[in-house]
Design the sequence.
């Protein structure tokens, strides 16, 4: 009959003293306390490995850091693993390795990998990537950046989203978070996630269009800008950038990056890399050709006298090798329209809307009007867009000249 091992008591464990040689006190089930001659009391477990049946020992920690009850709990867990033919030592190593992997696969680390390896092929331009990373640094990374990807659950995201609040910022951040989690699955860091449900109850407000007045109100806007210019409230660069934005329909970021070498006789050829970088434009580069109206040409002749020594049409005043800020016209409009009945009704990007609305009013074909704005979706049918490469330059020249004439009738200073 097998001899029964008497379980240890806390008093026995506490009162054990070191001897000249190491010795053991058994608790049963393979658990014993090794008392070393230096006074260290180490919990250990002896067991037979499932496959080889060779005896093995594993340390469970030292007393008193690991109590008798805690040591027994570990022993019982190991016995349960052995019952499933799992080696406790190998299992422990796998768990430790899993913890290391979790620490190495935090949200910030995986998100950084996605930003470097994948996002550049999807994003429209480097500025978009930089802005989105700044959004993450401000709203997301301080809260979940150090969490292992496996620990990010809808409950945690729900708390984060409540702090951010419904809106366009949350929409963008949620897409970035979901992309990071999806990338984690592809890398094998996590098996799945259900983070999508965290945003279900956050309804984004309907997006508002950029404020823009109607073409019949343009004389008032131009008059306000003319007065600000003649009163030296705005710099020549800002004034003529406003005028050229109106005449060409270009975005502010595009106007401010214009160079003199883009002008070819009566055409302004804006390289594709200057334009707003949609994914389609990035994959299929296409320059934007603008037939210059007589008003636009006179504007450029005047600007040449100011900035002709710079490569940029709108060079910085104090640094002729760099373009002016894309925010110059935006800030000027905000200041000049303050206190007028146009306050809050017009911004710099909305100048394109005045231009486009006017072309519709005078009956310009939708394809011509859309091409004038450098829209790749030109109103052509899908098949037509593939095969019809006609640029409508003559039609666009006529439309832009009509628009230039109207701007001059509205009081634009063109010389």
Sequence:
């Amino acid at each position: 009959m097998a001899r029964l091992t008497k379980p240890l008591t806390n008093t026995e464990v506490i009162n054990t003293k070191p001897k000249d040689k190491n010795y053991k006190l058994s608790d049963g089930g393979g658990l014993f306390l090794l008392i070393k001659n230096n006074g260290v009391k180490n919990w250990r477990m002896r067991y037979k490995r499932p496959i080889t049946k060779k005896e093995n020992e594993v340390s469970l920690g030292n007393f008193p850091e690991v109590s008798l009850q805690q040591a027994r709990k570990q022993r019982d867990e190991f016995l349960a693993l052995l019952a499933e033919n799992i080696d406790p030592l190998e299992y422990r190593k796998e768990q430790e390795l899993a913890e290391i992997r979790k620490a190495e696969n935090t949200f910030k680390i995986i998100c950084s990998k996605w930003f470097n390896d994948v996002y550049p092929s999807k994003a429209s331009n480097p500025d978009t990537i930089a802005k989105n990373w700044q959004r993450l640094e401000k709203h997301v990374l301080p809260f979940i950046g150090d969490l292992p990807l496996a620990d990010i659950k809808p409950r945690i995201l729900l708390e984060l989203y409540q702090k951010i609040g419904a809106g366009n910022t949350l929409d963008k951040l949620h897409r970035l978070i979901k992309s990071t989690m999806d990338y984690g699955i592809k890398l094998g860091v996590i098996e799945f996630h259900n983070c999508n449900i965290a945003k279900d109850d956050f309804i984004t407000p309907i997006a508002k269009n950029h404020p823009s007045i109607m073409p019949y109100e343009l004389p008032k806007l131009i008059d306000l800008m003319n007065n600000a210019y003649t009163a030296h409230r705005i710099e020549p660069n800002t004034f003529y950038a406003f005028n050229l934005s109106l005449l060409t329909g270009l975005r502010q970021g595009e106007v401010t990056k214009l160079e003199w070498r883009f002008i070819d006789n009566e055409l302004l050829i804006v390289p594709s890399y200057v334009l707003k970088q949609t994914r389609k434009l990035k994959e299929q580069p296409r320059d934007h050709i603008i037939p210059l109206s007589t008003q636009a040409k006179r504007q450029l002749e005047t600007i040449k006298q100011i900035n002709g020594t710079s490569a940029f049409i709108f060079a910085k005043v104090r640094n002729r090798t760099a373009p002016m800020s894309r925010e110059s016209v935006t800030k000027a409009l905000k200041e000049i329209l303050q206190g007028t009945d146009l306050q809050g009704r017009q911004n710099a990007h909305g100048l394109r809307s005045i231009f486009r609305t006017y072309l519709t009013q005078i009956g310009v074909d939708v394809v011509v009007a859309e091409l004038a704005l450098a829209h790749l979706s030109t109103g052509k049918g899908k098949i037509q867009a593939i095969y019809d490469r006609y640029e409508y330059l003559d039609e666009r020249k006529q439309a832009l000249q009509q628009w230039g004439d109207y701007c001059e009738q509205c009081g634009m200073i063109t010389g």
The first strand starts at residue 23 and ends at 28. The longest helix spans residues 168-187.
